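Changelog note: in this version the structure field was regenerated for every chain. One regenerated record is shown below for reference.
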Amino acid sequence: MRRYAEVLAVVALLSAFPISASAAEGAAPPSASRASWLLSGATIGTGRNALQAQLGWPGIDFTFLHGASSTLDLGASLGFNYGFEGIPKYHTMPGLKLNGVVRLELVEEAKLNIGVRVSPGFFVYFDEVYNYWNRREVEARFGLSLPVELVAGFLVLPNLSVHAGIAMPIGFQLTESFAFLMPVLPGFGAEYRVNDALSLTFDSRFGPNIVIGEDHADVDFAFRTLVGAGYRF
């Protein structure tokens, strides 16, 4: 009798494993949009970090992100630009940009996410001019920037997200002459997740850049088109 009791106990223990596995399989999966994304409206995830590099026009950009919560990323970016604020006619005015980065997810659905990105910082551009004696010299144009961007991401495949958005990289040039810049740049992009750590990215925005100076006002065409890669850790 004791032997039969031991056998029944072993059978009962073994039968519990497939039941547990079935329960796990039946559990609801997490939202597909909750996966870690670098460019869409979603964030990278609590406690995660990411490094991103992008290259194209108007320059090279490096960004670090830290997932402060499930809906908030904090970080910083450093950019080296070939031309002033993405305006092609100023393609010979190189500069540097340093910005903080705040990404906030506003909406999360199964295949849709919407978020906002704010990147306050400053810039300096170097303009080559001719002085009174017709000699070339370099002027440094310092300013403050307040880029704001609204982005909606759409999950096409589990590892592919496309996004559309509108960027307003507002700027204030403070030296040489004051100027207020208000670009309105709609556009689109995509992000392909090679694996959980590595992503390949494409991002493009284009539109008018309204420039209001002390004694003039202009509307110039501006754009950005960047390809890059990001690594999460």
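Spot check on this record: The first helix runs from residue 2 to 26. The CA atoms of residues 58 and 86 lie 5 Å apart.
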